[in-house]
Amino acid sequence: MAPQDSTGGLDSEESPQSRALAERVQKSVRKAFEAAGPSGQTIKNFLNGTRLGEPLHVILTDVPIGAWTAALVFDALTLISGRDEFAKAADASVTIGIAGALGAAVTGVTDWQDADAPARRLGMIHGILNLSGTALFAASLFARKRKARRVGLTLSVLGYGTMTAAARLGGKMIYEHRVGVDRTAGQTFPADFVSVLAESELPESQPTRAEHGGVPILLVRRGTRIFALAETCSHFSGPLAEGTLVGDSIQCPWHRSRFALEDGRVIDGPAVHPQPCLETRVRDGQIEVRKPPAATTA
Q1: ∠ CA(254), CA(260), CA(263), 5° rounding?
Q2: 155 partner at 20 to 30 Å CA-CA among 46, 122, 219, 286?
Q3: Residue 59 CB neighbours (<10 A)
Q4: 249 - beta bridge partners?
């Protein structure tokens, strides 16, 4: 079953044709990473920003936005003053922006391959607009090098407008559809030990869902130890209790993010945010959990 977005399920506005196209592209991107084996996963982790703890794409998008904004400012100063220094600064800013946009495109596609509707549709349009804006700035740079500065300036203005439209969709993906946002944020876990499951009901090496105050909790027994994490995957709200144990880690069934049972850290993306980890104990035949004292203090 396809995972549903927490904002209200599958996108009713996505046509069958656009959905099929998006799914084919996503499948092709996934196959490219999978074909590279473990190295492909390492590269994917880097591009997702897994080790940073934040989406790398979001960081890189600041480069073209800042550089191209500066280019328009320098272009305006060139028109006002006629000084060559401002013209050179504008051209350099355009070049830096193009380089940053290419990096943002690669990381964006890496993130997008794991997006579900409706964010998938928005993400495709967002990417097409960004590529179009980058192409306009590349044409602008070419015109500038050919001494057609007014043509270059016109193309830059068009590119900037296209980038602005793309940025608006990017913001909608984050703020409305929560792409790249920690899906465990806002969940409340007990500060003191509370019972969540009878010890006899937790099988060995079988991810099990418990609950406290309406918040799902993942329990895993490994030998004499019992691990507890937030059960909602931080990436796209996948149910980790339906996931697969890989050694002392749990792999999400939706997008294969993998988290360490010991401390909830991300081992493999696309997730970038760690899973909240809880302390456990057994008392009177009941498994009890609580937030670690340090987390409670914080």
Answers
A1: 125
A2: 122
A3: 14
A4: 260
Instruction: Give the start-to-end residue ranges of the domains of the chain.
Output: 16-175, 194-297
pTM of structure: 0.82
Residue type, position 37, single letter: G
Residue 266's contacts (CB-CB under 8 Å, 6 or more residues apart) are: 50, 53, 257, 258, 259, 272, 273, 274
Give the residue carrying structure tokens 């800013």.
93
3-class DSSP string for the chain? CCCCCCCCCCCCCCCHHHHHHHHHHHHHHHHHHHHCCHHHHHHHHHHHCCCCCCCHHHHHCHHHHHHHHHHHHHHHHHHHHCCHHHHHHHHHHHHHHHHHHHHHHHHHHHHHCCCCCCHHHHHHHHHHHHHHHHHHHHHHHHHHHCCCHHHHHHHHHHHHHHHHHHHHHHHHHHHCCCCCCCCCCCCCCCCCCEEEEEHHHCCECCCEEEEECCEEEEEEEECCEEEEEECECCCCCCEHHHCEECCCEEECCCCCCEEECCCCCEEECCCCCCCCEEEEEEECCEEEEECCHHHHHC
Q: CA 80 → CA 10, 69, 161, 197, distances in Å?
A: 51, 17, 22, 73
Q: Closest Cα partner for 75 from 139, 165, 140, 146?
A: 140
pLDDT tens digit sequence for 189-240:
999 999 999 999 999 999 999 999 999 999 999 998 999 999 999 999 999 9
Residue whose pair of structure tokens reads 């190295």 in the numeric block = 39
What is the token pair recorded at 49?
A: 């920003």
Least confident range of 7-21, 98-112, 174-188, 275-289: 7-21
Check: CB of residue 43 under 8 Å from CB of residue 149. Answer: no
* Residue 105 pLDDT level (bands cut at 50, 70, 90): very high
CATH architecture of 194-297: 3-layer Sandwich (2.102)
